[in-house]
Amino acid sequence: MILKNKLTRETLEITYPEFRKKFVKEIQTAFENYRRTQLNKYFYNFKDDNSMEYNFYFQLQWNFNHFGISNWYIEKM
Asked: What is the CA radius of gyration of the chain?
């Protein structure tokens, strides 16, 4: 997994488990923003947290880059 810093253009090559440990707060923020967005879309189609979390991690690169508030973004998985 290759991550890039938006400000310094520094690149970081780490494995997926290291990414999950190092960016816990950013992933959690991105998931909360994703969850809030999904719940506001269809009030009649309430999604449970398990399927929402699965969908979030299924498209982790896009969701982390767009819903996360971080100086880092996933360039390549």
From this structure: 13
